[in-house]
Amino acid sequence: MSSYAPDMSESRPVIGIVTAVEQARHGAWNEPSALLHTSYVEAVQQAGAIALMIPPDPALSEDPGPILDRIDGLLLAGGSDLDPASYDAVPHPLTIDTTPARDETEVVLARAALERDMPVLGICRGMQVLNVALGGTLVQDVPEVVGHEEHRRHLGTFVDNEHVVVLEPDSLAAQAAGEQRHVVFSHHHQAVGSLGAGLVVSGRSELDELPEAIESPEHDYVLGVQWHPEADPASGVVGSLVQRAAEVQGLRGPAASAQ
């Protein structure tokens, strides 16, 4: 699926992305920061949209409407492990660096976006958030289950972390990727366990059958991918989200978009 590219007369769709909260050094400072890898921002911008960073916000748990009114699509980004409490599980020893405030904001936004049938794309951790938001669970340590480290061979890089994902014919995942047998960049040690309500697995790792793509046939555009398309300049996955968000924005009309 090709990236969306608006002409100058069109308003660009807005894609909301919840940030991480991490200790970060910048200049003379080393303090907790709301941040997001620029690869997500650049992928959204290059596809023709505006990236709107949304820091975790307890008020959104009470009323996510005001922020959803301002965006045309939601991208759930990668990052640290989800708190197992979010899916009623006991923490595994290797489940670390959780940020419950981010979990809560993302889960609430995901559920509210689904209620609106807003386009939603979950990437890596974001696929897991999408599954948890719909009542699913997670595998807390993939190597313990599959017996190898191929999904995250090298920490902190995508170099030599490629593998093949096989996507279901005619699935949203295959349409977004543009092919059924897709080479992906991977960096994760957790994965989808039991599926959330309404979700189906539309892609699996060729290595071990691990779920690599999930989607909701009940919705117009709801897709989760376990890999990192934002790190692949040739990928059309983020562009497919932007394209659908632009189409939805056009259906609403300029008056609705300006509210």
Describe this structure in words.
This protein has one domain (14-257): Rossmann fold. Helix content is 29%, strand content 24%. It contains 9 helices and 13 strands. It has a 9-stranded mixed beta sheet with strand order 4-1-5-6-13-12-11-8-9, with helices on both faces. The chain has a two-stranded antiparallel ribbon with strand order 2-3. It has a two-stranded antiparallel ribbon with strand order 7-10. Mean pLDDT is 90; it is low at 255-259.
Which shape, going by the Cα principal axes? globular
Low-pLDDT stretches are 255-259
Please describe the biggest sheet, giving its number of strands, its sense, and whether it closes into a barrel: 9 strands, mixed
What would the CATH topology be?
Rossmann fold
Strand order of the main beta sheet, please? Answer: 4-1-5-6-13-12-11-8-9
Q: Tell me the number of strands.
A: 13
Strand content: 15-25%
CATH class: Alpha Beta
Structural category is alpha/beta
What is the tally of helical segments? 9
Distance between the termini: 30 Å
Helix content: 25-40%
* Order of helical and strand elements: EEEHEHHEHEHEHEHEEEEEHH
CATH architecture: 3-Layer(aba) Sandwich
Number of separate structural domains = 1
Q: In angstroms, what is the radius of gyration?
A: 17 Å
Mean pLDDT: 90
CATH H-level homologous superfamily name: Class I glutamine amidotransferase (GATase) domain
